[in-house]
Amino acid sequence: NAGVMQNPRHLVRRRGQEARLRCSPMKGHSHVYWYRQLPEEGLKFMVYLQKENIIDESGMPKERFSAEFPKEGPSILRIQQVVRGDSAAYFCASSPPTGNEQFFGPGTRLTVL
Amino acid sequence: EDQVTQSPEALRLQEGESSSLNCSYTVSGLRGLFWYRQDPGKGPEFLFTLYSAGEEKEKERLKATLTKKESFLHITAPKPEDSATYLCAVQGTGGFKTIFGAGTRLFVKA
Hints:
Chain A is mostly beta strands. Chain A is built from no helices and eleven strands. Chain A has strands spanning 5-7, 10-13, 19-24, 31-37, 43-50, 53-56, 65-68, 75-79, 88-95, 103-104, 108-112.
């Protein structure tokens, strides 16, 4: 019974490149959250998605960041034209159709050179 | 604005020395309050969800309680393997944004 999967686990990009982070939810889960965790800081909510639908993106930066959760395949968090300040751990969590519990993946650690 | 404050920032205990972690919250209508454990370099591990004041939940050496303004995570007779950062989070009824506290780093010495 696989948990939430994220890949890659580590990603290095140069300033100006694009970063694509993937998240496969637990089996049976249809909702995905994305969070960012800066060093020595707490988790910050970014976006909440259902299949083919963005429900709440109130924590998403207005520019360069986008997220999707297509009908087939993983959820994708895309960061365009990365800057050094984007370096952080990005976590996704999935939750079942009923219930509020969120189950987290191992995270993707993005380093921008 | 929804807010979560955890205290203390860090807590050092001897093995077997029981204590409590505090989570104070402000939310306009509580959908749920969550406790997680996070080990270094890993994703948070779900522990409990509490929905209404007066509710309590237990798991092994951990017990979570909830009032209208705060939640406590009680740790009874902790062991070194309980050392981790404990995170509290709330979700309000106004949406699905989940607000996390900064966490309490717990160190349990043998």
